[in-house]
């Protein structure tokens, strides 16, 4: 096993305990969509009330079947736990529908980062909101 893959799997194994409690408040009202990378399968266990969608390295299949229709019909947030490359693609696709990443943190440390400083292989927890959302700071 390559060192990089080992480190990613080790990080994924610990993300459930780290990210789950931090993401749970976004779904307190019982609405919203949660997108997670299948490699972080434990990251969604503490999210009651969320519509949960799994993706892999390629976000485009779930973009067309799940995420895009959701964004067009709802103004509730989309929150996720994915690698930076997936987040980057999603942010570009969502921008066409006037949605923006409002909150982005390195999942393992909680450090807030601007979307343009996301690295491809690091895991991030993030929130996607409509551009017109007044209750969240858009970065």
Question: Could you characterize the architecture of this molecule?
Answer:
- Keywords: Signal.
- Residues 1-19 form the signal peptide.
- This protein has 3 helices and 5 strands; from the N terminus they run H-E-E-H-E-H-E-E.
- Helices cover 34% and strands 23% of the residues.
- Mean pLDDT is 76; it is low at 1-30.
- It has 139 residues and is α/β, with parallel strands linked by helices.
- It has one domain.
- The longest helix is centred in the first third of the chain and has 21 residues, at 3-23.
- The chain starts with a helix and ends in a 9-residue tail after the last strand.
Descriptive terms for the model:
139 residues, alpha/beta, five-stranded mixed sheet, 23% strand, 34% helix
SSE topology string: HEEHEHEE
Overall domain count? 1
In terms of structural class, how would the helical and strand content be classed?
Answer: alpha/beta
Tell me the Rg in angstroms: 14 Å
Terminal CA distance reads 37 Å
Strand content is 15-25%
Number of strands: 5
Q: Which stretches of 5+ consecutive residues score pLDDT under 50? A: 1-30
- Tell me, briefly, the overall form: globular
Mean pLDDT across the residues is 76
- In DSSP terms (H or I, runs of 4 or more residues), the helix count works out at 3
Q: Tell me the major beta sheet.
A: 5 strands, mixed
Widest β-sheet, arrangement of strands: 2-1-3-5-4
Question: Helix share of residues?
Answer: 25-40%
């Amino acid at each position: 096993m390559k060192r990089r893959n080992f480190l990613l799997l080790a990080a994924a194994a610990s993300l459930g305990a780290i990210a789950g409690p931090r993401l749970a408040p976004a779904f307190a009202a019982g609405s919203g969509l949660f997108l997670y990378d299948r490699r972080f399968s434990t990251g969604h266990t503490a999210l009651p009330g969320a519509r949960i969608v799994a993706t892999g390295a390629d976000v485009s299949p779930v973009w067309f079947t799940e995420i895009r229709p959701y964004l067009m019909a709802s103004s509730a947030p989309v929150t996720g736990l994915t690698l930076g490359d997936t987040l980057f693609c999603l942010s570009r696709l969502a921008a066409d529908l006037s949605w923006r990443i409002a909150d982005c943190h390195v999942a393992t440390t909680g450090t807030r980062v601007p979307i343009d400083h996301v690295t491809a292989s690091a895991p991030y927890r993030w929130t996607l909101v409509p551009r017109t959302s007044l209750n969240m700071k858009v970065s």
